[in-house]
Amino acid sequence: MSSGRAFEPSPGVESLLDELLRARGDDTGSDTTHRGQTGVLDEQARTVLSTAVHAARDWGHTALDDTHLLWALTQTGPTASMLRETGVAVDRLARSLRTLAGAHEATGGSADPRPWLTSAARHALLGSYRQARHEGAAQLGTRHLLLGVATDADSAAGRALARAIEQGEHHRTGPAEHTEQDHHDTTQPATPWLDEFGVDLTARAAAGDIDPVTGRDHQIDQIVEVLARRGKNSPVLLGEAGVGKTAIVEGLAHRISTNTAPPLLAGRRLVSLDVTGLVAGAQHRGDFERRLRELLREVTEHRQDLIVFVDEIHVLIGTGAGDGALDAATVVKPALARGELPLIGATTTEEYRRHIEKDPALERRFHPVTVPEPTVAETTAILRGLRQRYQQHHHIRIDERALRHAAALAERHIPDRFLPDKAVDVLDQACARLRLRHDRAPTGTATRPLLGTDTVTEVVAERTGLPLTELGTTERVKLRELDTRLSERVIGQPQATRTVADAIRRARTGLSDPDRPLCSFVFTGPTGVGKTELARALAAALFSDSDRTVRFDMGEFQEKHSVSRLIGAPPGYLGHDEPGQLTNSIRTHPYSVLLLDEIEKSHPDILNTLLQVLDAGRLTDSNGTTVDFSNTVVIMTSNIGAEQALLAAEPDQPPFDPVAALSARLRPEFVNRIDEIVPFQPLTTDALVDIAESLLEHTRQRLRTRGMRLDITERAVGWLVHRGEHREFGARQLRRVIERELHNRIATLLTEHPAPEGKTVHVDLDEQDTPTVRLAGAQRHADGERPTEPDRASTPVTTPAGGDGATMGP
């Protein structure tokens, strides 16, 4: 369509804008009346909009886009002159807009005289209307339409206009003396499509906008070797997310920009292609394919001067397909086969296997280059190379120890991500936190703050959920005190706590296999002897929080299909999108104690799944995500052999062998992968007394929150222990006796005294050895603990003991 063609105003043109404004609620009563008399658009604007409608129809489009609007503006004398005054090459801009819109001749049929508006066109028209109202203009003119297009910098037309203005500023030679011939000279870019949808990495490197790359010389050399090949010269970087694949390509761009690359690559442009931008705006069948073919034409024509980089290259598979159109991979294959497309790709190993390897015709065009995860030492060197950039950005100083600390803590405490990305994130956040603290602090010093290890520790503690004391306390002190801390909570099991502490010390000092769980135990013994309590005590000792216990009742996993609850349902089954309970819990809280209660009740397939955890410290869920268990303590409890253990505790009885009892019920290969089998002994009377004191201390704490105290005599404690002593039920029976015989009496007493605050609950036995509970006065001895004589106003509460507590079931 030439600029000389005349257009008749379409009767539906102005109604498009009217309907749009009414839909957006921009109408007012006066505005509606005014439009009814004079119209929203002036004559030139009506001509531009009509031209855009005709262009959309003639180019075979059913929608009016902002590219049509901008093209129509370039065909209008006043607007074209305005653009030329700013140095814009109007003809070149018009040609690029036709190409960008995918213009092609209509193939028959009648086009809708009132095409629907794309979101970009709606945005441009609304912007122009608001601009006209802001200026108080009676009608909307072509200048307002141009401003409406220019304000949407994210649209295709807005980007094209901004780029044309920028190029005009660079090449302008006079204020308003450009002719059409001036814009056909050598200033026209050789690769407009690649410039539109790509980022020149070599230009960014030359401008200093790319961070330096450290320790990746081997991978960069491999890329150069592949690019130098005659055939199959397209390398693809394979590695996990965050290992530095894109940084390696940026390192190559830095070499090219500093003339340190081989002569083969000297002077080349390394351009990163934005595939999503290439797809954006391609609304009609074949639009994306045409764009991609134009881009390939540019690259192949200038292949001696270009290298194209496609990050996440697996997205080429299927991109652009639909309604019979070809996807990007199919369009690219011939150029790759002929060696005409100098291409570097990057993707993860899993995505490469899932998408590219399934297409042998595409896979054989690439040469894989593996990018391994760097070590902690290599990551520290990478952080050292970035230190100057972060110091300048955050206006701080970074200590060398902070670099090593960030790499070490990220590697140890963030297992679900990869170095160096996670270490760089930790360092960047620590720098930002220090700078913000310094900015909020009272002024008085101009010295830049120094980032040390403390702020890095805070950042890692927040990300992992571990308390600061866990990361700051030295490992040696914590391990030395482990026996004591466990014995304080688990009473009457000295051998069990010692066995667990020894195993933890072996693991934490590096003597155990790092590719297995931190430790794995099976706790055997009667119920109520402290197996679950030891698991919670271990979580508190290792991770400073008893709630860092992930517990599963294995009695709920007796069916074969219940394995899907642990690792997720397989593809095609209901609930496949939901994560597995076990894998998701450990993935989000890797520093935990995994407690599997009554392991013998689970289905054999569950045990087969757990074999992977015990042997390799990893478990893959139904989505293919591998979860790391190397920082997890796995504890399984079992009641296997509980009766034999009780008999073995009797005098003159043979000892109980827990390993033999477990092997008789569980598969030998499962038992053989367990670090320690820890037998728990039946509780003695002395142990029950200590447990009773511990339970009563909890009662004291609860009363203390109400401003009261508890005073219980040794005779009363002995009575409770005697009632609660039961070899089969253990400490749980004692807990029930305390609740029934003591807590019930205290609750009755408190309901009879409306204001018991400040008084003491006194518990003793009377002459008939029956518990009595009295509410004593508020006076105290000097120690502040013991009350004086009971308050005369207080009333003794005597409740019959009832049945023998020791014979009660759970």
From TrEMBL:
Residues 231-372, 517-676 form the AAA+ ATPase domain. Residues 169-192, 767-810 are annotated as: Disordered. Residues 169-186, 780-792 have a biased composition (Basic and acidic residues). SMART domains: AAA (SM00382), ClpB_D2-small (SM01086). Keywords: ATP-binding, Chaperone, Hydrolase, Nucleotide-binding, Protease, Repeat. The keyword RNA-binding does not apply. It comes from the Bacteria. One of its GO terms (biological process) is proteolysis. Residues 683-773 form the Clp ATPase C-terminal domain. The keyword Iron-sulfur does not apply. GO terms for molecular function: ATP binding; ATP hydrolysis activity; peptidase activity. One of its GO terms (cellular component) is cytoplasm. Pfam families: AAA, AAA_2, AAA_lid_9, Clp_N, ClpB_D2-small. This is ATP-dependent Clp protease ATP-binding subunit ClpC.
